[in-house]
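Limitations

Structures in this collection are predictions, not experimental determinations, and the ligand pose is part of the prediction. Treat each record accordingly. The example that follows, with nicotinamide-adenine-dinucleotide as the small molecule, is included so readers can see exactly what is and is not provided: the inputs are given verbatim, and the output is the predicted complex.
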Amino acid sequence: MISDNSDIQKKIIDGRLIAKNIESSISEKVIKLKKNGIVPSIAVILVGDNPASEVYVRNKDIAAKRCGILSKKDIYPASLTEKELLNKIDELNNDPLIHGILVQLPLPPHIDEKKIMEAINPSKDVDGFHPLNVGKIFTENAAFYPCTPYGILKMLDFYDISVKGKNCVVIGQSNIVGKPLSIMLMNRHATVSSLNIFTKDVKSIASKADVLISATGKAHLIDEEYIKDGAVVIDVGISNINGKLCGDVNFEKVVNKVSKITPVPGGVGPLTVAVLMENTVKSASMKS
Ligand code: NAD
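Predicted complex:
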């Protein structure tokens, strides 16, 4: 039996609401910075014409404007060389009016993403992907934490969900989501299992999770058999099926078993963008 609509509503982790709260506190900080003559600004670089990346860049631009942050979009054709991109980053690194630099991934195959991430000045690395900031996740003193994992922690905080001593299962081991998130959960004293495509019996490990986070990009991979009764489920995945966005989790099948769950869309996505804005304002504040 499916729970009635009000029961479902109570279980939903409302990413849009949390993002709105974060954005309103950012907007206040932006007003103060502007009074001191500092206009927080972010440069977003997009290379090529990946339609999903274009949407992400547009969303970031709109969010920046909502918060009063100056957003500079640099859009280049896929033919841009690695050297040319490195030169652009160098210019932005040396521009005192730019506080955050984001290079939208993925990049065309002829450009080495690692080299590009390393070229961004760590003090302007608002995406949190520079190896220095990544390494400092271990010691919990990164200038900036990667936006999606940090956004997920903010979601847990918003609903007072402690992970201390809990069994947290993270499915997916990407550098931008799964790996940093696993460390950040460990920093909060969670017992973390980090799973990948080669993990044997993902279902049985997942079904023991108090907090299950899925970041695979495999639409509807997770059904009720992956879920422990009362689990908190965070769905990072974004897939497009026949023009409709959906996550890794089959929401209808699991909703009766969970205590809390993120929808797709309207879950993790808005938090990723809000944290990017927060990081940009933090960077601008450090210059004040
Ligand atoms: P990725 O595509 O780089 O890697 C996927 C990971 O999932 C790999 O570690 C792989 O081994 C693992 N995996 C794939 N299938 C699996 C399976 N069946 N069982 C266990 N593990 C499996 O990952 P990514 O860049 O982190 O992206 C993952 C998803 O999250 C994508 O859908 C992406 O669009 C989405 N995403 C969303 C946001 C957001 O803000 N909502 C941010 C980043 C990524």
